[in-house]
Design goal:
Aminopeptidase; 11 strands; about 30% helix; 2 domains; 3-stranded antiparallel sheet; 8-stranded mixed sheet; alpha+beta
Length: about 260
């Protein structure tokens, strides 16, 4: 079971990236060896992922992609997770002038064991995004919290897809929280979970996540997955999530 969950954590993320890469506002590469999605006019999503190299070719492949990054033909960030091959790709990237810039915990939960916390903040009105105005609110929250430019046309495209659900949290008529739920067979993935800085002491991330996961469970999904920061993973443990792996983002050093 742990092997299944391990792969599901990265697979949900990878399939979300592939979904986005098919939009006309994004450039992409989709081969057996390596995949990436690159936003043409935004910051997210934009990364290299799902490397599958033989040990003997790893150094050569890294240098090839490094040249593409330097020429602006591939995204700057490279995600390494449990499905990445070879297993020591991160070590190889460090030897080729990359740095590990962002560490996340890959976490999973069997939804039948989702902890329903009685003290979750009931003053937050959590709702699915259904209107254009609400989608704009979602975009503004995510852009503000993560300091990124979001492609609104991509969001419009994703909103009508059956495997995607956007959520916002409203407090006294003000949108303060957001998240995206991405569904693949049996697996519900939480992405872009965000709360405005002035409201982060209110358990709104837990409230939002709990609602989205309950919705997924009601639809028949068996497991929830996410990637959390070192601080965030302690929050999600309250819902019953467990850490199964590390998901690390590498970036090419600017001097290279």
């Amino acid at each position: 079971m742990s092997k299944f969950l391990l792969s599901s954590i990265e697979r949900n993320l990878d399939e979300f990236y592939l979904k986005c890469s098919r939009h006309s506002n994004f450039a992409s590469n989709n081969t057996d060896k390596i995949k990436w999605v690159r936003a043409k006019n935004a910051d997210w999503p934009s990364c290299i992922f799902q490397a599958t190299f033989n040990d003997s070719e790893t150094d050569f492949e890294i240098e090839q992609i490094k040249n593409l990054i330097q020429s602006g033909k591939a995204p700057d960030d490279w995600t390494v997770g449990p499905l990445t091959k070879p297993k020591n790709l991160g070590e190889s990237l460090l030897k080729h002038d990359f740095s590990d810039v962002f560490h996340q915990a890959g976490m999973a939960l069997k939804l039948s064991k989702l902890k329903l916390l009685p003290n979750l903040n009931s003053i937050l009105n959590v709702k699915k995004v259904e209107k254009e105005e609400e989608l704009k609110m979602w975009s503004e929250i995510v852009s503000t919290v993560f300091h990124i430019k979001v492609d609104y046309e991509l969001l419009e495209h994703l909103r009508v897809q059956s495997e995607v659900a956007f959520y916002i949290g409203i407090l006294k008529k003000k949108c303060v929280s957001a998240l995206l739920l991405y569904l693949i067979p049996g697996i519900a993935g939480l992405h872009a979970v965000s709360t405005l800085p002035n409201y982060r002491s209110n358990n709104f991330a837990l409230t939002m996540s709990s609602r989205a996961l309950l919705d997924a469970r009601d639809l028949g999904y068996k497991y929830g997955v996410l990637q959390a920061s070192s601080m965030g993973q302690f929050v999600y443990k309250k819902l019953g999530f467990k850490k199964y792996c590390d998901v690390i983002t590498y970036a090419l050093n600017e001097t290279s």
